Amino acid sequence: MNLLVTGGAGYIGSFMTKSLLDLGHNVTVIDNLKRGKRSAVDDRATFKEIDLNDDLSEIFIDSEFDSILHFAGLISVEESTKDPELYFKNNIEGSRNLFETAIKNNVRNFIFSSTAAVYGNPTQIPIPEDHDKKPTSPYGESKLKTERNLIEIRKNDPLVSFAVLRYFNACGASLNGEMGESHIPETHIIPLAIKAIMEGSEFKIFGDDYDTPDGTCLRDYIHVLDLVDAHLLALNKIIEIPGEYCFNVGTGNGISNLEVVEMVKKVSGKDLKLSNFPRRPGDADRLIADPSKIQSELNFIPKYSDLETIINSAWKWHNK
After folding, report:
1. Which member of 252, 260, 263, 273 has the lowest number of beta carbons within 10 Å of its beta carbon?
2. What confidence category does residue 89 fall into, taking pLDDT thresholds of 50, 70 and 90?
3. Verdict on whether the full-model pTM lies above 0.90
4. Catalytic (active-site) positions
């Protein structure tokens, strides 16, 4: 297939691009490089530096894309609470511009990178896809609005086919340590904990009074390689049986911040000094997926998402 990957210079987008190329697909990557890294884009892909809020028509002039995998967007809960307009412009308006331009150019298959943050503080654990949506951050709001825009687009154009994938906590690196996780700014616990160990600095725990067994947030961690597999399965689904789909991508297992820290210490063989800070705005107590839908409908089975494999792969990459 001929595929367009937005945000392909970012963490998950770069892994997706490599996987698609390895499978023999033709891939064009677009990224504004404000948060992504040009060096993360596989040399076999065609790369174009462009922002989603720009005129995107040139992207489609010489290419007839079969599908678009849309990863481009800002992802920090904390940053979104400080600058919500930035998130609405990038995540909502940019996505709308992408979808509308694509449809004008006869591209109607979309995979959208969404988030468990659309659920807010859930009242049901594990969280099913039909759970109430009450985001506690502008980041979550921006993703939910884009999901709803896709639904409206399909109502007006039934030939549109899409799958929304609500990630829980994407993490980990390639098993050989050649590719890994790096964000600007970095807000994810695993790379931050590893960095603290490597630098001998204190590691900040944001909140120790959550309604969880050890007082720290509980999250559902999904290895980036498993996440890529979920996208491949979803892509095949929307092409074989066009429609609108929504899937949680997680394991159904909750892991606390302190459990992550202990595993980082175990894998590294080093100690980590902790310091407690107040909760970050917008952080939910527990975000744990009910993955039964993606397991039954797409036969999705995570292979690399046990905590030790996740931390081992990340440790290899950060040491390289």
Report:
1. 273
2. very high
3. yes
4. 139
